[in-house]
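testing teh design pipeline on a random one, pls ignore if ur not involved
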């Protein structure tokens, strides 16, 4: 009977380890995604400021 109990315990430990790895990867992904969003927003602001500095007239052929 102890063999069955130790197998179940090992299985639960493996499952917990897998869940911890998953949570760590998910947290890293969410942080990375937020950093990318901040970079995109910063680039958008820089782009708008650059467009404001350009002359108002368009090139006409």
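output:
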């Amino acid at each position: 009977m102890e063999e069955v109990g130790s197998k179940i315990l090992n299985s639960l430990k493996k499952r917990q380890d897998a869940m911890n790895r998953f949570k760590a990867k998910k947290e890293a992904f969410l942080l990375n995604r937020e950093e990318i969003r901040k970079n995109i927003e910063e680039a958008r602001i820089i782009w708008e400021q650059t467009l404001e500095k350009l002359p108002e007239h368009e090139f006409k052929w």
